[in-house]
Protein backbone atom coordinates (compact mmCIF):
# COMPACT_ATOMS: atom_id res chain seq x y z
CA UNK A 1 0.00 0.00 0.00
CA UNK A 2 0.90 3.65 -0.29
CA UNK A 3 2.08 5.41 2.84
CA UNK A 4 2.74 9.14 2.73
CA UNK A 5 2.98 9.62 6.47
CA UNK A 6 5.70 12.11 7.43
CA UNK A 7 6.19 13.34 3.85
CA UNK A 8 6.21 16.99 2.84
CA UNK A 9 4.20 18.23 -0.14
CA UNK A 10 6.41 20.79 -1.89
CA UNK A 11 5.93 19.99 -5.58
CA UNK A 12 4.19 17.18 -7.49
CA UNK A 13 7.60 16.34 -8.96
CA UNK A 14 8.31 14.48 -5.70
CA UNK A 15 5.31 12.14 -6.08
CA UNK A 16 4.70 9.08 -8.25
CA UNK A 17 1.54 8.74 -10.34
CA UNK A 18 0.33 6.11 -7.86
CA UNK A 19 0.85 8.48 -4.93
CA UNK A 20 -0.99 11.30 -6.72
CA UNK A 21 -3.89 8.99 -7.56
CA UNK A 22 -3.93 7.82 -3.95
CA UNK A 23 -4.36 11.43 -2.78
CA UNK A 24 -7.17 11.94 -5.31
CA UNK A 25 -8.94 8.76 -4.16
CA UNK A 26 -8.47 9.85 -0.57
CA UNK A 27 -9.90 13.31 -1.34
CA UNK A 28 -12.94 11.78 -3.07
CA UNK A 29 -13.52 9.56 -0.02
CA UNK A 30 -13.21 12.50 2.38
CA UNK A 31 -15.55 14.58 0.22
CA UNK A 32 -18.17 11.81 0.33
CA UNK A 33 -17.74 11.52 4.08
CA UNK A 34 -18.24 15.28 4.51
CA UNK A 35 -21.36 15.27 2.29
CA UNK A 36 -22.78 12.48 4.45
CA UNK A 37 -22.23 14.69 7.48
CA UNK A 38 -19.96 12.24 9.22
CA UNK A 39 -17.58 14.11 11.51
CA UNK A 40 -13.98 13.04 11.40
CA UNK A 41 -11.21 12.72 13.95
CA UNK A 42 -8.36 11.93 11.58
CA UNK A 43 -6.37 14.96 12.72
CA UNK A 44 -7.47 15.02 16.36
CA UNK A 45 -4.69 16.19 18.63
CA UNK A 46 -2.72 17.66 15.73
CA UNK A 47 -1.62 21.29 15.66
CA UNK A 48 -1.15 22.98 12.32
CA UNK A 49 0.30 26.39 11.45
CA UNK A 50 -0.45 28.32 8.26
CA UNK A 51 2.29 30.78 7.29
CA UNK A 52 1.28 33.35 4.68
CA UNK A 53 3.52 35.94 3.01
CA UNK A 54 0.92 36.56 0.28
CA UNK A 55 -2.84 37.08 0.31
CA UNK A 56 -5.30 34.18 0.01
CA UNK A 57 -8.96 33.29 0.22
CA UNK A 58 -9.25 29.65 -0.89
CA UNK A 59 -5.98 28.22 0.36
CA UNK A 60 -6.14 29.69 3.83
CA UNK A 61 -9.81 28.78 4.32
CA UNK A 62 -9.35 25.32 2.80
CA UNK A 63 -6.55 24.50 5.25
CA UNK A 64 -8.53 25.87 8.19
CA UNK A 65 -11.83 24.13 7.40
CA UNK A 66 -10.10 20.90 6.44
CA UNK A 67 -8.20 20.94 9.71
CA UNK A 68 -11.26 21.78 11.82
CA UNK A 69 -13.38 19.12 10.07
CA UNK A 70 -10.95 16.44 11.22
CA UNK A 71 -10.32 17.80 14.70
CA UNK A 72 -7.04 19.67 14.29
CA UNK A 73 -6.17 22.99 15.93
CA UNK A 74 -5.05 25.60 13.41
CA UNK A 75 -2.96 28.79 13.80
CA UNK A 76 -2.99 31.38 11.03
CA UNK A 77 0.24 33.42 10.95
CA UNK A 78 0.95 36.35 8.64
CA UNK A 79 3.19 38.53 10.74
CA UNK A 80 5.89 36.18 11.96
CA UNK A 81 9.53 37.12 12.52
CA UNK A 82 10.61 34.82 9.67
CA UNK A 83 12.89 36.44 7.14
CA UNK A 84 12.86 39.68 9.10
CA UNK A 85 14.22 39.29 12.62
CA UNK A 86 14.75 35.53 12.40
CA UNK A 87 16.15 33.16 9.79
CA UNK A 88 13.98 30.62 8.03
CA UNK A 89 16.06 27.84 9.59
CA UNK A 90 15.47 29.03 13.16
CA UNK A 91 11.79 29.73 12.51
CA UNK A 92 11.40 26.22 11.10
CA UNK A 93 13.08 24.69 14.14
CA UNK A 94 10.80 26.58 16.52
CA UNK A 95 7.59 25.84 14.63
CA UNK A 96 8.60 22.19 14.37
CA UNK A 97 8.66 22.02 18.18
CA UNK A 98 5.09 23.35 18.43
CA UNK A 99 3.33 21.98 15.39
CA UNK A 100 2.68 18.67 13.64
CA UNK A 101 2.46 20.28 10.19
CA UNK A 102 3.28 23.59 8.50
CA UNK A 103 1.64 25.20 5.48
CA UNK A 104 3.57 27.93 3.68
CA UNK A 105 2.48 30.42 0.99
CA UNK A 106 5.00 32.94 -0.22
CA UNK A 107 7.45 34.02 -2.85
CA UNK A 108 10.33 31.59 -2.98
CA UNK A 109 10.25 27.82 -3.45
CA UNK A 110 13.53 27.73 -1.46
CA UNK A 111 11.67 29.01 1.60
CA UNK A 112 9.19 26.14 1.63
CA UNK A 113 12.07 23.73 1.00
CA UNK A 114 14.04 25.17 3.92
CA UNK A 115 11.02 24.90 6.20
CA UNK A 116 10.75 21.22 5.28
CA UNK A 117 14.46 20.65 5.77
CA UNK A 118 14.70 22.23 9.21
CA UNK A 119 11.30 21.80 10.89
CA UNK A 120 11.24 18.01 11.13
CA UNK A 121 7.50 17.93 10.36
CA UNK A 122 5.51 17.70 7.10
CA UNK A 123 5.44 21.01 5.21
CA UNK A 124 2.78 21.75 2.58
CA UNK A 125 3.30 24.23 -0.25
CA UNK A 126 0.29 26.57 -0.41
CA UNK A 127 1.80 28.44 -3.43
CA UNK A 128 5.17 29.87 -4.30
CA UNK A 129 6.25 31.79 -7.40
CA UNK A 130 7.30 28.44 -8.88
CA UNK A 131 4.65 25.87 -7.93
CA UNK A 132 1.08 25.55 -6.64
CA UNK A 133 0.71 21.79 -6.09
CA UNK A 134 -2.38 21.68 -3.86
CA UNK A 135 -4.27 23.55 -6.59
CA UNK A 136 -3.44 20.81 -9.10
CA UNK A 137 -4.98 18.13 -6.90
CA UNK A 138 -8.23 20.13 -6.85
CA UNK A 139 -8.08 20.57 -10.62
CA UNK A 140 -7.46 16.87 -11.17
CA UNK A 141 -10.29 15.88 -8.82
CA UNK A 142 -12.64 18.25 -10.68
CA UNK A 143 -11.63 16.76 -14.02
CA UNK A 144 -12.09 13.24 -12.66
CA UNK A 145 -15.60 14.18 -11.57
CA UNK A 146 -16.33 15.38 -15.10
CA UNK A 147 -14.42 12.89 -17.25
CA UNK A 148 -13.78 9.79 -15.17
CA UNK A 149 -10.27 8.54 -15.97
CA UNK A 150 -7.71 11.27 -16.63
CA UNK A 151 -5.08 9.47 -18.70
CA UNK A 152 -5.32 10.50 -22.33
CA UNK A 153 -7.38 13.62 -21.63
CA UNK A 154 -6.25 16.94 -23.13
CA UNK A 155 -5.79 19.96 -20.86
CA UNK A 156 -5.12 23.21 -22.71
CA UNK A 157 -3.66 25.92 -20.52
CA UNK A 158 -3.96 29.37 -22.08
CA UNK A 159 -2.09 32.47 -20.93
CA UNK A 160 0.95 32.83 -18.67
CA UNK A 161 2.41 29.34 -18.99
CA UNK A 162 5.62 30.39 -17.21
CA UNK A 163 3.98 30.96 -13.82
CA UNK A 164 3.29 28.64 -10.88
CA UNK A 165 0.09 27.33 -12.50
CA UNK A 166 1.66 26.64 -15.89
CA UNK A 167 4.52 24.77 -14.26
CA UNK A 168 2.38 22.77 -11.88
CA UNK A 169 -0.30 21.81 -14.40
CA UNK A 170 2.40 20.60 -16.77
CA UNK A 171 3.86 18.43 -14.00
CA UNK A 172 0.45 17.08 -12.98
CA UNK A 173 -0.49 16.21 -16.55
CA UNK A 174 2.86 14.54 -17.22
CA UNK A 175 2.56 12.45 -14.06
CA UNK A 176 -0.99 11.33 -14.83
CA UNK A 177 -0.48 10.57 -18.53
CA UNK A 178 -2.49 13.51 -19.81
CA UNK A 179 -1.88 15.66 -22.87
CA UNK A 180 -0.75 19.10 -21.72
CA UNK A 181 -0.89 21.95 -24.20
CA UNK A 182 0.36 25.45 -23.33
CA UNK A 183 -1.10 28.10 -25.62
CA UNK A 184 0.95 31.20 -24.92
CA UNK A 185 3.32 33.71 -26.50
CA UNK A 186 6.76 32.13 -26.73
CA UNK A 187 8.28 34.34 -24.03
CA UNK A 188 5.74 32.88 -21.61
CA UNK A 189 6.40 29.21 -22.36
CA UNK A 190 7.51 27.22 -19.29
CA UNK A 191 11.25 26.97 -18.71
CA UNK A 192 12.95 24.59 -21.10
CA UNK A 193 14.62 22.54 -18.36
CA UNK A 194 11.28 21.79 -16.69
CA UNK A 195 9.73 20.95 -20.08
CA UNK A 196 12.54 18.45 -20.76
CA UNK A 197 12.21 16.93 -17.31
CA UNK A 198 8.47 16.46 -17.77
CA UNK A 199 8.84 15.07 -21.30
CA UNK A 200 11.02 12.35 -19.79
CA UNK A 201 8.21 11.54 -17.32
CA UNK A 202 5.75 11.44 -20.24
CA UNK A 203 7.79 8.65 -21.83
CA UNK A 204 6.71 6.46 -18.93
CA UNK A 205 3.15 7.70 -18.45
CA UNK A 206 1.98 8.19 -22.05
CA UNK A 207 1.40 11.91 -21.55
CA UNK A 208 2.55 14.58 -24.01
CA UNK A 209 3.61 18.21 -23.76
CA UNK A 210 2.91 20.69 -26.54
CA UNK A 211 3.87 24.36 -26.51
CA UNK A 212 2.39 26.66 -29.13
CA UNK A 213 1.57 30.31 -29.67
CA UNK A 214 -1.14 29.40 -32.19
CA UNK A 215 -4.55 29.59 -30.57
CA UNK A 216 -6.59 27.87 -33.27
CA UNK A 217 -4.52 24.68 -33.49
CA UNK A 218 -3.58 24.77 -29.80
CA UNK A 219 -7.08 24.60 -28.38
CA UNK A 220 -8.37 22.00 -30.84
CA UNK A 221 -9.64 18.85 -29.18
CA UNK A 222 -9.37 20.24 -25.65
CA UNK A 223 -11.24 18.41 -22.89
CA UNK A 224 -10.56 21.35 -20.58
CA UNK A 225 -9.54 24.94 -21.21
CA UNK A 226 -7.67 26.36 -18.22
CA UNK A 227 -6.50 29.90 -17.62
CA UNK A 228 -5.06 31.99 -14.81
CA UNK A 229 -4.54 35.70 -14.19
CA UNK A 230 -2.14 37.45 -16.56
CA UNK A 231 -0.29 39.04 -13.65
CA UNK A 232 0.50 36.89 -10.63
CA UNK A 233 0.97 38.05 -7.05
CA UNK A 234 4.23 39.95 -6.77
CA UNK A 235 4.39 40.82 -10.51
CA UNK A 236 2.10 43.84 -10.44
CA UNK A 237 4.74 46.06 -12.07
CA UNK A 238 4.51 43.91 -15.23
CA UNK A 239 0.84 44.65 -15.83
CA UNK A 240 1.26 46.74 -19.01
CA UNK A 241 3.62 44.28 -20.66
CA UNK A 242 1.44 41.26 -19.82
CA UNK A 243 -1.73 42.84 -21.12
CA UNK A 244 0.07 43.61 -24.36
CA UNK A 245 1.33 40.02 -24.66
CA UNK A 246 -1.77 38.19 -23.54
CA UNK A 247 -4.63 40.23 -24.97
CA UNK A 248 -5.06 37.80 -27.91
CA UNK A 249 -5.14 34.85 -25.48
CA UNK A 250 -8.35 35.75 -23.69
CA UNK A 251 -10.63 32.77 -23.09
CA UNK A 252 -13.92 33.70 -24.74
CA UNK A 253 -16.85 32.00 -26.46
CA UNK A 254 -15.01 31.92 -29.76
CA UNK A 255 -12.08 30.08 -28.21
CA UNK A 256 -14.37 27.56 -26.49
CA UNK A 257 -16.02 27.00 -29.87
CA UNK A 258 -12.64 26.54 -31.57
CA UNK A 259 -11.95 23.47 -29.39
CA UNK A 260 -14.50 21.63 -31.53
CA UNK A 261 -15.62 19.83 -28.37
CA UNK A 262 -19.21 20.59 -27.29
CA UNK A 263 -18.45 19.06 -23.87
CA UNK A 264 -15.29 21.06 -23.16
CA UNK A 265 -15.11 22.42 -19.60
CA UNK A 266 -13.56 25.65 -18.35
CA UNK A 267 -11.28 25.75 -15.31
CA UNK A 268 -9.52 28.58 -13.44
CA UNK A 269 -7.66 28.38 -10.13
CA UNK A 270 -9.19 31.75 -9.11
CA UNK A 271 -9.09 34.53 -8.09
CA UNK A 272 -10.09 35.71 -11.54
CA UNK A 273 -9.86 39.14 -13.05
CA UNK A 274 -12.86 38.62 -15.29
CA UNK A 275 -15.12 41.46 -14.27
CA UNK A 276 -15.10 44.96 -12.92
CA UNK A 277 -16.27 44.16 -9.44
CA UNK A 278 -13.04 44.88 -7.56
CA UNK A 279 -11.08 48.05 -6.88
CA UNK A 280 -7.89 46.65 -8.40
CA UNK A 281 -9.71 45.56 -11.54
CA UNK A 282 -11.43 48.90 -11.95
CA UNK A 283 -8.15 50.74 -11.77
CA UNK A 284 -6.43 48.42 -14.25
CA UNK A 285 -9.33 48.40 -16.68
CA UNK A 286 -9.49 52.17 -16.69
CA UNK A 287 -5.73 52.52 -17.22
CA UNK A 288 -5.50 50.02 -20.07
CA UNK A 289 -8.87 50.55 -21.72
CA UNK A 290 -9.88 46.92 -21.25
CA UNK A 291 -13.34 45.59 -20.71
CA UNK A 292 -12.42 42.04 -19.73
CA UNK A 293 -9.19 40.21 -19.10
CA UNK A 294 -8.11 36.51 -19.08
CA UNK A 295 -11.67 35.17 -19.42
CA UNK A 296 -14.95 36.75 -20.42
CA UNK A 297 -17.77 36.84 -17.94
CA UNK A 298 -19.84 34.92 -20.49
CA UNK A 299 -17.51 31.89 -20.35
CA UNK A 300 -16.85 32.23 -16.62
CA UNK A 301 -20.59 32.01 -15.88
CA UNK A 302 -21.43 29.43 -18.57
CA UNK A 303 -22.53 25.84 -17.83
CA UNK A 304 -19.09 24.70 -19.11
CA UNK A 305 -17.42 26.54 -16.24
CA UNK A 306 -16.58 24.31 -13.27
CA UNK A 307 -14.67 26.95 -11.33
CA UNK A 308 -16.72 26.79 -8.14
CA UNK A 309 -16.62 22.97 -7.99
CA UNK A 310 -12.88 23.38 -8.45
CA UNK A 311 -12.70 25.91 -5.61
CA UNK A 312 -14.67 23.58 -3.31
CA UNK A 313 -12.32 20.76 -4.19
CA UNK A 314 -9.41 22.75 -2.80
CA UNK A 315 -10.76 21.93 0.65
CA UNK A 316 -11.27 18.20 0.07
CA UNK A 317 -7.89 17.72 -1.59
CA UNK A 318 -6.00 19.76 1.01
CA UNK A 319 -7.71 17.66 3.68
CA UNK A 320 -6.45 14.56 1.90
CA UNK A 321 -2.89 15.92 1.80
CA UNK A 322 -2.94 16.70 5.52
CA UNK A 323 -4.55 13.38 6.49
CA UNK A 324 -2.25 11.34 4.23
CA UNK A 325 0.87 12.95 5.65
CA UNK A 326 -0.21 13.29 9.30
CA UNK A 327 -3.05 10.99 10.30
CA UNK A 328 -2.48 7.75 12.07
CA UNK A 329 -5.84 6.45 10.86
CA UNK A 330 -6.43 6.38 7.13
CA UNK A 331 -9.72 5.97 5.29
CA UNK A 332 -10.55 3.54 2.54
CA UNK A 333 -12.09 4.46 -0.81
CA UNK A 334 -15.54 4.45 0.81
CA UNK A 335 -14.47 6.97 3.42
CA UNK A 336 -14.48 4.42 6.23
CA UNK A 337 -11.64 4.71 8.73
CA UNK A 338 -9.10 1.96 8.34
N1 LIG B 1 -6.51 29.38 -5.96
C1 LIG B 1 -5.97 29.93 -4.87
O1 LIG B 1 -4.89 29.55 -4.42
O2 LIG B 1 -6.72 30.90 -4.28
P1 LIG B 1 -6.29 31.87 -3.09
O3 LIG B 1 -5.19 32.77 -3.60
O4 LIG B 1 -7.53 32.62 -2.73
O5 LIG B 1 -5.78 31.02 -1.95
N1 LIG C 1 -0.63 32.61 -10.64
C1 LIG C 1 -1.45 33.11 -9.57
C2 LIG C 1 -2.17 31.99 -8.89
C3 LIG C 1 -3.09 32.40 -7.77
C4 LIG C 1 -3.75 31.24 -7.11
C5 LIG C 1 -0.58 33.88 -8.59
O1 LIG C 1 0.50 33.39 -8.25
O2 LIG C 1 -0.96 34.98 -8.19
UniProtKB/TrEMBL annotation:
L-ornithine binds at residues 164, 228, 232-233. The keyword Transferase applies. Its EC number is 2.1.3.3. GO terms for cellular component: cytoplasm. Gene3D superfamilies: Aspartate/ornithine carbamoyltransferase (3.40.50.1370). One of its GO terms (molecular function) is ornithine carbamoyltransferase activity. SUPFAM superfamilies: Aspartate/ornithine carbamoyltransferase. Its main location: cytoplasm. It catalyses: carbamoyl phosphate + L-ornithine = L-citrulline + phosphate + H(+). The keyword Cytoplasm applies. It comes from the Bacteria. Keywords: Cytoplasm, Transferase. One of its GO terms (biological process) is citrulline biosynthetic process. Carbamoyl phosphate binds at residues 56-59, 81, 105, 132-135, 269-270, 314. Transmembrane segments: none annotated. It is found in: Cytoplasm. InterPro entries: Asp/Orn_carbamoyltranf_P-bd, Asp/Orn_carbamoylTrfase, Asp/Orn_carbamoylTrfase_sf, Asp_carbamoyltransf_Asp/Orn-bd, Orn/put_carbamltrans, OTCase_ArgI. Residues 7-145 form the Aspartate/ornithine carbamoyltransferase carbamoyl-P binding domain. Residues 152-324 form the Aspartate/ornithine carbamoyltransferase Asp/Orn-binding domain. Belongs to the aspartate/ornithine carbamoyltransferase superfamily. OTCase family. HAMAP family: OTCase (MF_01109). Reversibly catalyzes the transfer of the carbamoyl group from carbamoyl phosphate (CP) to the N(epsilon) atom of ornithine (ORN) to produce L-citrulline. This is Ornithine carbamoyltransferase. It comes from Eubacterium maltosivorans. The lineage of its organism: Bacteria, Bacillati, Bacillota, Clostridia, Eubacteriales. The gene is argF.
Amino acid sequence: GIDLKGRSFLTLKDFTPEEINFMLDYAAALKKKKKEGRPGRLLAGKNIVLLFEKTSTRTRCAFEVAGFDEGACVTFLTNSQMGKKESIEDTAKVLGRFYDGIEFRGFKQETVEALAEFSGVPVWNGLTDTYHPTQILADMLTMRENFGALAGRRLVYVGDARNNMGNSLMIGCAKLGMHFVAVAPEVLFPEESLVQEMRAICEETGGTITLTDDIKTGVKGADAIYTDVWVSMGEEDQMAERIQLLKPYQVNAEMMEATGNPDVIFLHCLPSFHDLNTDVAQDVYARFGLTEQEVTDEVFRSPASKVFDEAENRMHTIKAVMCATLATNQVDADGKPI
